[in-house]
Design brief:
By secondary structure, the chain is of the alpha+beta class. It has a single domain (3-101), classed as Double Stranded RNA Binding Domain (2-Layer Sandwich), CATH 3.30.160.20. The protein is 38% helix and 18% strand. The chain has helices at 30-34, 52-60, 82-101, 114-132; strands at residues 3-5, 11-13, 17-22, 38-44, 71-76. The protein has a three-stranded antiparallel β-sheet with strand order 3-4-5, with helices on one face. Strand 1 and strand 2 form a beta hairpin. Helix 2 packs across helix 3 (82-101). The protein is elongated, with a radius of gyration of 27 Å.
Length: 139
């Protein structure tokens, strides 16, 4: 694998993705202390060969994995093996870039129908009447 496939026309060369093996956090005994199985992935959006459309959309994303300088930082430590964590980090980068390309359907504002407004008001009146019956009984 020399490139990360985003779509039919768009790929990211692996030379643009900086992958570094680090020690994982959390429980795991001696394995955690000795082996660098976690992966720290860095991908600079501005310096990449992605089309301008993808770059703009990624920069606009409000995602905690994208730093202020426009660098995507992904830390993968789900698995115990370095290879699986590397694959996981690349898959998460792929999903993030793909999600930036998806355009949300424009919402068309609508008004509630007259019958739905009437139903709502009737139910509120009924509920209010029921609550008024809960008062003290006069003798």
């Amino acid at each position: 694998m020399r490139a990360l496939q985003i779509s039919n026309q768009v790929t990211i060369p692996l030379t643009e993705i900086e992958i570094q093996a680090i020690r994982a956090q959390g429980a795991g005994g001696q394995n955690v202390n000795k082996v660098s199985s976690a992966i720290h992935l860095r991908f600079d959006i501005a310096a990449s060969s992605l089309p301008a459309f993808y770059k703009e959309r990624l920069q606009k994303l409000r995602d905690h994995r994208i730093s202020g300088e426009g660098v995507i930082i992904i830390k993968a430590q789900r698995f115990r093996s370095q290879d699986k964590n590397r694959e996981d980090a690349l898959m998460r980068l792929q999903q993030l870039v793909r999600s930036a390309a998806v355009t949300q359907k424009q919402r068309r504002p609508t008004k509630p129908t007259r019958s739905s407004q009437k139903k709502r008001m009737d139910s509120k009146t009924r509920r209010g009447h029921l609550k008024s019956l809960r008062g003290k009984v006069e003798t």
